[in-house]
Amino acid sequence: MISITIPIYNEHGAIEALFAKIKEVMDRLGRPWEVIFVNDGSTDGSAALLNQIAAANPEAKVIHFRRNFGQTAAMMAGFDHATGEVIIPMDGDYQNDPEDIPKMLAKLEEGYDVISGWRRDRQDNAIQRNFPSMLANRLISWISGVQLHDFGCSLKAYRREVVEGVRLYGEMHRFLPIYTRWHGARITEIPVNHFARRTGKSKYGLERVIKVILDLMVVKFLDRHQQKPMYVFGMCGVLSLFAALGFGLWALGLLIFAHKPLITTPVPSFCLLSFMAGGLCILMGLLAEMITRTFYESQGKSIYLVKETKNLPTN
């Protein structure tokens, strides 16, 4: 079974053509398949259109969110409800080409666990989308150590076992290949087609680069210190305490050797502030350790709310 997951947010003009092309490609492939549309709180009539498609096509399954939760939550909902051994996410704006799906499946047969699409000839605004994306991709590759040209391309193919148990929050969907690498997945990428947007409008702009940088800081922290956050906060605390000791000795030296009253120099204030910062960092580290243990020992809580489903079993 091949599961194709597609987040939808106000893509009414592209949905029918996209599904028709997916159906053509998958029927030609001759393997069992399903497509899971996740309606992420659309307000343009996409919900009704998706219901019509699901009513006429048992392969089409629909999840309607109660409101807009974002692309990462929509992607996770698709993964959670997918039943295939291979999961292929793609965008709902018909900029990804379903004809690339057979190539990805063929590449998986070579022994890889993750196939990442590379929009080598990207049909987007060069300044607003392509240039910031290039910078972000190089930054992610350099910091994460996972060398891909296009982390932002939604069209990828995952073996089910490498994404099971992975939970994504915020806007972390672009870092999913990094998470799978942590689980020992073999990753490669192939060039894929990319079409210019025909309907709707892009939901991303230059501000996405800032979000990528902030998310990348989180990913790096989780990579190094998710299970021992005390190492980060504790190190900052220890350094601050050493700084407080240095400022204290400096102030004492000024008092003894330079006969300079402590009230006339800001060094004692630096000492006090460094001491307080060190203590707070250590306390934050202890609190983070408690939160980490609560996270691992408690049951996971979903990051989305489902209003209704179509062609999916009810729990």
SSE map:
Layout: E1 2-8, H1 12-29, E2 33-39, H2 46-56, E3 60-65, H3 71-81, E4 86-89, H4 101-108, E5 114-118, H5 126-144, E6 156-159, H6 160-163, H7 176-182, E7 187-191, H8 207-225, H9 230-257, H10 267-297, E8 306-310
Helix pairs in contact: 1-2, 5-8, 9-10
Structural class: alpha/beta
Number of helices: 10
What is the CATH topology classification name of the largest domain? Spore Coat Polysaccharide Biosynthesis Protein SpsA, Chain A
Mean model confidence by pLDDT: 84
Q: In which order are the strands of the major sheet placed?
A: 7-5-6-4-1-2-3-8
Tell me the fraction of residues in β-strands, as a range. Answer: 5-15%
Q: What oligomeric state is this?
A: single chain
CATH class of the largest domain: Alpha Beta
Number of domains: 2
Low-pLDDT regions: none
So what's the overall shape? elongated
Portion of residues in helices?
40-55%
Largest sheet: 8 strands, mixed
CATH superfamily descriptor of the largest domain: Spore Coat Polysaccharide Biosynthesis Protein SpsA, Chain A
Q: How many strands appear in the DSSP assignment? A: 8
How far the N terminus sits from the C terminus, by CA atoms, comes to 21 Å
- The ordered string of helix (H) and strand (E) elements is EHEHEHEHEHEHHEHHHE
Per CATH, the architecture of the largest domain is Alpha-Beta Complex
Rg calc: 25 Å
